[in-house]
Amino acid sequence: MGGVRRIAFIGLGAMGGRMVARLLQGGFAVQGYDVSAVAQDAIAAIGAQPAASAAEAARDADAVILMVVDAAQAEQVLFEDGVVQALAAGRPVLLMATCPAWRVAEIAEQVTALGRRFVDAPVSGGTAGAETGTLTIMAAAPAAVVDTVRPIFAVLGRKLVHVGERPGKAATLKTINQLLCGVHIAAAAEAFALASKCGLDLPLVLDVLGDSAASSWMLKDRGPRMLERDPAVSSAIDIFVKDLGLVLDTARNAKAAAPLAAIAHQLFLATSGRGLGAADDSQVLRSYAALNGTD
Amino acid sequence: MGGVRRIAFIGLGAMGGRMVARLLQGGFAVQGYDVSAVAQDAIAAIGAQPAASAAEAARDADAVILMVVDAAQAEQVLFEDGVVQALAAGRPVLLMATCPAWRVAEIAEQVTALGRRFVDAPVSGGTAGAETGTLTIMAAAPAAVVDTVRPIFAVLGRKLVHVGERPGKAATLKTINQLLCGVHIAAAAEAFALASKCGLDLPLVLDVLGDSAASSWMLKDRGPRMLERDPAVSSAIDIFVKDLGLVLDTARNAKAAAPLAAIAHQLFLATSGRGLGAADDSQVLRSYAALNGTD
């Protein structure tokens, strides 16, 4: 199928925009598309080519990357907006958004039935990882297909793990990843809320716990933003409403108990229900404030 | 009160034994006591002086360190077994075990009323941190008292945080620390249990999640032992039955909600209830296996 030089990138949000910047720095040509004109302008300003439509972006591309919100958007873009048809036969579609494994498997089947390749390739590391090209990339596809897109993964991530050949397996692993991410954010909020009620100095609590056996990646990343009143939004509350919902759907399908994920989901859901769905996910802390009647 | 050279060390378990080794390496003379003859023999073999009783260990000591199981043992040793009376006036007692803040405050009051000093000094970092002298030490006592025992903390820990002057404050911070430690262990077990039900390869799951935004200190430390059938015991299930119980007592006293800690406590408690209280705490995974009916 030849080398990969020209990439169609669909979905230019907080993650996608930063990944496009990395691809440009890595020497790729990028044709980007997003429904947001602001997002289109932002990638034009750094040297990517904004496209008039998703299908237009895919024309002449060597590969398509999808960093859309969910599986429904991926299906819309691929099958209704004409991306698969616009992409040359034999070229790969890389679905890097967080989607349910069963939806990913269905999408993969449709894409390959139409003569294109498919890589289930979700990531972990958030906007910080996207910006610095240090994402962890989980890939499920035949090894030969993964090999053709390694140069792309090399500029986006620090670690590539080939989870298996069957699309959906990487999505499942990403779901497990989100279980821990979501529970760890909520647990950090619970710790700060209790520390606050006990009269401890929260910056000191963060300093100690971030450097002890109590530490987590999320405590160190979200912890500082939990101590701000209105932090900048790095990832929204509603992302974890969705992702922990996906964890619970996955556990339900597997008939497995996931009580910690269920509690964490409730806390994010209630935060969203109070009108804070677009706030930074560190603000799940406010569900504890609401429960405890503190500020 | 002069320099500190000779230390009485009471409680020579998994943590205490390793801390005595560090103190000996750091040039201190150690007089140790434990109800277990095996533990006494073990410190004798590395150059410490086993004492005939706790009071005997404290006689002629420049400081007493308590690394006993709980507050009841600390009170027994200090006030009933005669340690405070045996220690010279003005010398410090360092309580490094995990105890409720309100018990620590009471003990501190009694010790200082008898003319000795007191430092509330719990640690985080587990047996690995004890062995390598990389513990995080949280200290609450008047600054002048903390200063006199800095040479001791310097060989036991990598980080010393002076939480405040009032004994009990460090114990509260340690309690918050244990909230995260306990929830993170249970969350790791929940993630592995779900991954297993979904047919993922668990060593691969650990490799990816231990190096992504899902990571925690506990995932990296306990995760490998969750993949073993009968791992060596580094810290027992019953320690977290106690410590998460302490978290919940603290939250109850503060009238604060701690739903994640409550769920995690249930999982450790049920594991202990099935007769596994002395097993390694990674085996909380078996509560998920019991719930899910898996092996």
Q: Could you report the average pLDDT of chain A, rounded to the nearest whole number?
A: 97
Biggest interchain interface, per-side counts: A-B, 66 and 66 residues
CATH superfamily heading of the largest domain in chain A: NAD(P)-binding Rossmann-like Domain
The description of the largest β-sheet of chain A is: 6 strands, parallel
In DSSP terms, counting alpha (H) and pi (I) runs of 4 or more, how many helices of chain A? 15
What string, H for helix and E for strand, traces the elements of chain A in order? EHEHEHEHHEHEEHEHHEHHHHHH
Distance between the termini of chain A: 58 Å
* Uncertain residue ranges of chain A: none
List the quaternary state of the chains: homodimer
* Portion of residues within helices of chain A: 55-70%
Tally of separate domains of chain A: 2
Strand segment tally of chain A: 9
Which topology of the largest domain in chain A does CATH recognise?
Rossmann fold
- Helix/strand-derived category of chain A reads alpha/beta
Assign an overall shape of chain A.
globular
Q: How large, in whole angstroms, is the Cα Rg of chain A?
A: 20 Å
Write out the strand line-up for the largest beta sheet of chain A, numbering strands in chain order.
3-2-1-4-5-6
Q: From the 3D coordinates, which CATH architecture of the largest domain in chain A would you assign?
A: 3-Layer(aba) Sandwich
CATH class of the largest domain in chain A: Alpha Beta
Work out the strand percent of chain A: 5-15%
